[in-house]
What does this fold into?
Amino acid sequence: MDHTLLISKLTKVYPTPRGPLVVLEDFDLRVPEGQFVTLIGHSGCGKSTVLSIVAGLQEPTSGGVILGGREVTGPGPDRGVVFQAPCLLPWLSALENVRLGVDQVHRHLSRSERRSLAEHYLACVGLGDALDKMPSELSQGMRQRVSLARAFALQPKVLLLDEPFGMLDSVTRCELHDVLLDVWQQDRRTVIMVTHDVDEAIFLSDRVVMMTQGPKARVGGIVDVPMERPRNRAAVLQDPRYYELRQTLLEFLGSPGAESETEVASSTVEAVPG
Ligand SMILES: Nc1ncnc2c1ncn2[C@@H]1O[C@H](COP(=O)(O)OP(=O)(O)OP(=O)(O)O)[C@@H](O)[C@H]1O
Ligand SMILES: [Mg+2]
It folds into this structure.
């Protein structure tokens, strides 16, 4: 079964008091199964809108999303979502928060299998000793670890991460990069992650998708990140290709003309799949 994610001619128009706002127009992207893609672009260009349409939380105005040959028409357990602020239920422990989703999605498993599954993913994110901790007893970074475990434990076809590390300090952020890559390396789910951080985008992903500045935002260019996996931060920082990629992305974000794909002149930029 092929779980390719196909975003095709996605257009989203919001009604506003000042008339219709065309946030996205003809946003096209194909993500092969198992690929880790990051989405970067200026604030307000429509990154979260793309993610929420793929999640099925919002409807596109036109165009659509196809996952594994089926059109996305609403939210479903084949797509796991993690937002910037970890939203855990405060009256449930870390394990119970993860169990909640696992119990719903993996109904065919026995009670003890479901418990092991939840424990496994909590251990993967480094919380094997904190299963019974309540959210109020956990740091912001630990809560985001629980959110990651909860999303991975659903074993969805696609994980949608909207700036999941945006509220964390840089040390915790780096720790969580390693955690995320570790779990991803085991399961190889398809990931689309939104980030503002160019270094984070390069370190984590197979491809970085650059969105043009809105309104009518679309894919302005895509760069491949060729560094081998598993990745090691020190090795990546020593790789001359890292600095070329960084330059390309920063130039794209910095150029006032980030609205047109012709502005991105670099040999690493692929043609945008149509
Ligand atoms: N429900 C809505 N109604 C009207 N306009 C909206 C709505 N949701 C988002 N917008 C507008 O659509 C545009 C894109 O919003 P979106 O949240 O997708 O951007 P973003 O790229 O995720 O921004 P950020 O980087 O700040 O998170 C913005 O101009 C925003 O004001
Ligand atoms: Mg956003």
